[in-house]
Amino acid sequence: MLNVIQDEEYTQRITREELIIGFYIKVYNIDRDSIEIKNNLFKDTNNLDAQRAYFKLAYYTL
Question: What is the per-residue pLDDT across 1-24, written as a single tens digit (0 to 9) for each?
Answer without folding.
Answer: 455 566 666 566 777 777 777 777
